[in-house]
Specification:
GO terms for molecular function: aldehyde dehydrogenase (NAD+) activity. This is 3-beta hydroxysteroid dehydrogenase. The chain contains 11 helices and 12 strands. Helix 2 links the parallel strand 2 and strand 3. The strands form 3 sheets. Strands 3-2-1-4-5-6-10 form a 7-stranded parallel beta sheet, sandwiched between helices. Strands 7-9-11 form a 3-stranded mixed beta sheet. Helix 3 runs parallel beside helix 4 and helix 4 runs parallel beside helix 5. The protein is globular and about 55 Å long. Helix content is 40%, strand content 19%.
């Protein structure tokens, strides 16, 4: 396939682009800067210049492709307002891409987060949350999946709280950044809450498998670690950085604070069984050993 990819230079996106190219696909990737364009060219992708807010550019990318993987999302989560703006921008982009694919039976794979279910790991059958700080993402993904009835092979890959590679990325990466800034490897809540995780190179395989063969309207979980205790994550970070490990108020983590404090394990049993996915790279706690002091 000739695949249009947005967000192709991020932790997940760069791995997805490499996975697609390795398995015989060609890639047209959105680039908003010269640096991103060069990275994509060096990886072997074709480049389409523009930003996620450029809906006409997105439509043009989808129109000339056999399928789409939508990964782009804003990078500023510092306030409730900037997070909401990024969610709205992503929703408009998904709507534009989906409209371009109507009636074509071409695939589009989008990304969202694993839901949280009190008392047990969430599964692929659980609905995405449509309220709360990130409820807008769930509504946008649901709208895209509904296009399955209108000739679009729309699917969603739900990602865990931490997508990591070489000790960087995801919620664990945000904990590391916060520790460097404050001098404390802090964690919210009592630290027993669990976060799921996956290595970016393993996650990329799920996106490729969904693009190639997943039925329209389906949802998948790219989860390798069902749930690592946040205190254990902070302990490894503290050890690598030589910092004390302490409980800190969830407000220290801005708009993500309430999410950070939640117990939110997730299962990928259905994805492994149906798509034949087998994670093969280090788990989160092992990978965090790559953090540089």
């Amino acid at each position: 396939m000739h695949v249009f990819v947005t967000g192709g230079t991020g932790t997940i996106g760069s791995a997805v682009v490499a996975e697609l190219l390795t398995h015989g696909h060609t890639v047209l990737a959105l680039a908003r800067s010269d640096k991103s364009a060069q990275a994509l060219t060096d990886a072997g992708a074709q480049v389409l210049r523009g930003q996620l807010a450029d809906l006409d550019v997105l439509r043009a990318g989808a129109a000339q492709s056999d399928g789409v993987i939508s990964l782009a999302f804003g990078s500023d989560y510092s306030t409730d307002e900037t997070l909401a703006r990024s969610i709205a921008e992503e929703g408009a982009a998904l709507a534009a891409l989906g409209e371009e694919l109507l009636g074509s039976d071409r695939p589009i794979v989008t990304v969202s987060g694993t839901p949280w279910v009190p008392g047990r790991p969430s599964t692929e059958a659980d609905p995405a949350p449509t309220d709360g700080p990130v409820g807008g993402r769930g509504r946008s993904v649901n709208a895209l999946l509904e296009l399955a009835s209108r000739g679009v092979r729309a699917t969603a890959v739900r990602m865990p709280r931490t997508v990591h590679n070489q000790g960087k990325g995801g919620f664990a990466g945000l904990l590391t950044d916060q520790a460097r800034r404050t001098g404390v490897a802090g964690y919210p809540g009592d630290g027993t809450q669990r976060w799921p995780a996956v290595h970016a190179l393993d996650a990329a395989v799920v996106f490729r498998l969904a693009l190639e063969s997943a039925p329209a309207g389906t949802t998948w979980h790219a989860v390798a670690d069902e749930g690592d205790a946040v205190r254990d994550i902070a302990t490894v970070i503290g050890r690598r950085l030589g910092l004390p490990v302490e409980q800190v108020p969830q407000e220290n983590f801005g708009p993500f604070g309430p999410i950070f404090a939640m117990d939110q394990p997730a299962s990928s049993a259905h994805t492994r069984q149906v798509l034949g996915w087998r994670p093969a790279h280090p788990g989160l706690l092992e990978d965090l050993a790559n953090i540089q002091p």
